[in-house]
Amino acid sequence: MVLGRLGKIYFYRRALWEMSLKQFKARYENSILGVAWAVINPLLIMLAITFVFLYVFKAEIKNFSFFVLSGIFPWFFFSGALQEATFSILGQQSILRQFNLPREILPLSSVLSNFLNFFFGWLIIYPLFIFFNPKIVLLLPLFVLVSLLFFFFVCGLSLALSVLNVFFRDIGQLSGTLLMFWLWVTPVFYSIDMIPERFRWIYNFNPVVPYIASYQEVIFNGHMPNLSMSIGAFFWAFISLTSGLWVFLSLESKILKRI
Amino acid sequence: MKVIRFKDAWEIYKIKFTLDNKVSWEDFCALKGISFEIGKGEAVGIIGENGSGKTTVLKLIAGMLKPDRGEVTVSGRVSGLLELGAGFQPEFTGKENIYLNAGLFGLSRKETEEKYDEIVDFASLGKFINAPVKCYSQGMFFRLAFSIAIHVDPDILLIDDIFAVGDIYAQRKCFKKILELKEKGATIIFALQDIEMLKRICTRSIFLREGKIIKDGPISSVSNYYMETVGDRRGIAIAQKDALGIIFNNGTLALRWKEETVTSNSGGHSIMSISGREYLSTMADWQVKKSDTDQEIVAIGEWPDVGVRQRWKIAILNEREFLWEIAIQVLGGISIDKADTRIFFTDKYKSWLTLCNENAFPENFIHETEGEAISILDPDNGLVGIKGGENSGIKLPVVVFDRLQDYARTACQLGNTGADISSRFIHYQVFPATSNINFIKEKYTRYFLSKAVIFEPEESDSLADYLKDAKRSISGPPVINNGSLRIFCKNKRVEIYWQDKLITSGPGMNTFFRYEDRDYSAIEGCWEIIKKNNDAVVININWDNDPRFIQTWTLKSQSQELISWDIEMNIDKKVKLRNKQVELTLCTEYEKWLTFDGSGDFDKLEKRGNAVILGKYTNDCIGVAGVYKEDSVVCPGILLRYGDEYPKSSYIFKTMEDAPATTLRFVEIDRKEKFYTPPGNYKYFTGKINIFADKERENEPERLSLDNPRTEKHVTGSSGKIEYDGVTLFFDNGKGKICWKGTELTKGLGLYSSVLFKDVWRDSSQAFWEIEKLGKDKLVATGYWPYIPLTQLWEISILDEAKIYFKVTKEIWEEAALKRMQVNLMLSDKYKEWSVPELACGKFPGKFKEHDGLLWDRLWSGKAGSPIMIKKCKFKGGFLSRGSLPSVILDCAAADSQACYSIIENTDDLFQARVLQYEVDLNQKTDFRNECFEGQIRIIS
Fold first, then answer.
1. Structural domains of chain A, count
2. What are B355-376's pLDDT values in tens digits?
3. Average pLDDT over all residues of chain B
4. pLDDT score recorded for residue B300
5. Residue B192 bridge partners (DSSP)
């Protein structure tokens, strides 16, 4: 069944692409800076955080701004994709009423359009990191792999949330705050080494950690991600995608009546 | 190849109901186990009221819904318009939306580019194609959406009811495109309200109601069924038996045969004219009362603004016959001028038939809105039918409307309606005022009853048989056949033939009576004819009424010259029946009237209105003399006589206009003691009709009577003679003939009285008289007036010195508007002079005024004077005869002398006599019994 669904999604890849493109375009429609916003937002946060951490909390991380940037940039993709996907079905009911599409295209296109955004952002930021640490070029394949795994992870989560939000609108309400909370419990503004040893196990249950940490390794430190992080990234991507699809498919027929 | 397959598909929605802050979730079944299959290339219209599940079906086909139970399989690419604007990105331009939508349909960019021009061209948006679609008008939206939907080469095209958004031009264009798609083999599924539009594209239709398939079949059949059953559900009922189906829908009747509707437009409906306005049955609020069997529908419709109700009963009798009855109940004080019943049939019918005729309908509908009636020769027979033609390949059945006998006074028409309705119509018209249909308050009165019979077109033999039977029941074989005499019972008429010449006219034999404020006549009742043998028949006549009235007529022909006519009446309670009449209407050829006492020409009779009436007799034997042509009989002489004990006044009259006829009528005189008719059986009338085709006997009714002797009672019971001292008075049925020494002084009616009732003078010779005492010189007699609840008691005695004393006492036994009463003395025209002693005197004119039915020639009138009886109000009719006629003085006093006048008149040339009168103005006095006149007639030789 899942394979059949994937086949169908593949069949409708054009639609998926059109939808993603549409959303991507819609995001910057009528805005002057356009796709530059994909970079500006994370940069602004980066500046703010750098200021707070370096000059207020006096954190001692080398090249703190770059460190924050390497984490905050994937996080922006994560939170943006998740938030849009959560409302993708509710917000685009009309499409479901007109076209017999595989319904998962809606959350997936949200993720994809954010991924595009993410991609364009990297086009600008990645050269910066190369400038800062040229040897990361060698880790480019790993960087792509991490991005793909992260993408799949977000896809799975988005599928589940998009359909759950149809039934429990609370999810939509909660998502902003939850993501804020999640941001602070994820080592984006600090490195995982800074966490006291006794709390560090908790971080094993935070599925975003392996991806953020991997990005930080691959882009900022120029190291291979460690084994546990690599396994974590694969593991969570798999769990998220399967459970997300399962939730989606089992609730799908009911969504149609709710919209 | 089936591209769509529904197998017991259920669709259940959970709906949140909030009532007073209480939330409950309830299941709503949008579809309840639907199964159907649609093959490739079919065009199917889904019809149904709002909320019947049409859109759900479309959504299931589109894959936007999944069935909760059952299975829906769809193969092929589905495209369509289910919701206007769905899938459009408002901020995007038309062009971008085309790409987006095409992509969402699954078209590649390349394919889209290929189609792009076509799509834009069809949508004809001009430069707007590059504007954001949020700026589009509804029509533009529609065109773009439709253009995309049909240009993506769908295998299945779904269109929901959003068509109305486009203008006519756009719709037409879309239609063309859809037809093109259909040609290419696409499956098309429509859900439109506009049935006419559906009919142009679809061949098949599925009718949904409340989530179930009601009908699935050819579009014309299903859509008709839908149209007939859409509306307020309280006013809809369906009766079905085999191929015959009847749908009652809020004042319309649709007739279906083998799933095909043969009626059109509003089908069968009724129209009432009330004070110049028309009220159609479709305008009423209807409620089906009973529909528990599939065979009968009873519905009540009310027009609240006029206060009238109708009750329809539609009953299927068998698989090819049904009855249709309409009754009216009047709630307020309104009168219905006209009550019609009309049935529209589809214009596929080509010809019509009646009992005697058959022809084609005019080909074209010549007027826009006005109908074109065909004149048919026998509208009275009430049988009309339509036949011929095909409807969607099915031969239309022959439908015959056969009016049942008991409402004979309806005329029927048929023809073409105007072009707006384009139907054939059958139209029954009833004029309640002239049809004697009295709409009684709070009671349903039937005005229309018809039986419809349906024949397959190939069953022309059974149709012919039916018509033959119908003819027989209308013209039928004679019920009595005896020598030259034959009697038929046709459609509530009794027709008497003498040597194949119809000598009756109109209803032939009829009875009337009055109960409360309504007149009943036999021809309004329900007739049941039971033939006994060749010379006897029994007719049961039943009035649909409370109390129940049933008359049983027994007609027997002892010989070809004698018919006995006995009527027995059965009533279920004690009632006050008035004006009981029997009537024999004959043809107009008759020229001479005939009674036991004499005969005369109709030409010379008094003319009242358009009739000449001989209504001055209380005679048990009235008739007409035969008409002969060179010794051979044209119309035989007829005598109608009664032989029962109830006295009757008799009328002979001839009407020339309206319904020309010669009528013989007996009216039973309402006598006080016979005021109430007891329940049970009683003899209403016993009579005989003599027919004589012998010229010799025409002037001898007495001899005729001798052949069939009159009952003694009627001959002697009302006449008598008293005499004394040279004065003789013959009393005969309210006429007093006075002789002096063998010479008659009176003429015509002699001594008589008359009374003005409801502006008509009725004199004592019309009343029924009974002599109570008859002495040598004294006589007491009672007279009962017909139509008037009046009795007069006459006491007459002859005194010494050639004086006749008389006293008239009147008695009214029911309130009646009596205006004036007179006592008269009609004297011979040999008298030439009159005088009123001490007041006036004069000569009678030599000529008589020509008879015109109006007042006689009044020579003198004056107040009768003071109340002293003999002296006052006395005048002297001084008649100085040339020969030996003595003078006569009428000396009279009235109880109310103030209102008493004395009058001297010359009659017209009918009586040619002199008249002395005393007249008293009764001023509608309510005295029930009083002495009116007391006086003397003095003869001075």
1. 1
2. 767 788 888 888 888 888 876 6
3. 80
4. 92
5. none
Architecture of domain B477-710: Distorted Sandwich (2.70)
Q: Which residue do the tokens 């072009």 mark?
A: B419
Mutant choice from A27, A254, A257 vs B, greatest count of B C-beta within 10 A: A257
Q: Is the pLDDT of residue A61 over 80?
A: no
Tell me how close the Cα of A85 comes to any Cα of chain B, in angstroms.
17
Inter-residue contact B125 to B144 (CB < 8 Å):
yes
Residue A159 in tokens: 């599928």
- pLDDT score, position B612: 65
**Chain B residues touching A19 at Cβ < 8 A:** 100, 103-104
CB B499 within 8 A of CB B505: no
Say yes or no to pLDDT of B571 above 70.
Answer: yes
Greatest CA separation for chain A: 56
**Cβ partners under 8 Å of residue B833, min gap 6:** B841, B842, B843, B844, B878, B879, B880
Options 2.20.25.90, 2.160.10.10, 2.70.98.10, 2.60.120.200; which CATH number does B232-467 get? 2.70.98.10
User: Taking CB atoms and an 8 Å cutoff, what residues of chain B touch A96?
Assistant: 64
Which residues sit opposite B314 in a β-bridge? B297, B324
Query: In which band, very low, low, confident or very high, does the pLDDT at B174 lie, cut at 50, 70 and 90?
Result: confident
Cβ distance A97 to B86 less than 8 Å, yes or no, reads: yes
Question: Are residues A151 and A74 in contact, defined by beta-carbon separation less than 8 angstroms?
Answer: no
Nearest residue to B490 (alpha-carbon basis) of B466, B511, B509, B513 = B509
A103: nearest CA in chain B? B64
What is the domain partition of chain B in residue ranges?
2-221, 232-467, 477-710, 717-940
Architecture of domain B717-940: Distorted Sandwich (2.70)
Please list every residue in chain B whose beta carbon sits closer than 8 Å to the beta carbon of residue A12: 106
Shortest Cα–Cα distance, B100 to chain A (Å): 6
Tell me what the mean pLDDT of segment B303-321 comes to: 88
CB pairs under 8 A between A and B: 68
Cross-chain CB nearest to B87 (options A11, A26, A99): A99
C-alpha B229/C-alpha B245 separation (Å) is 12
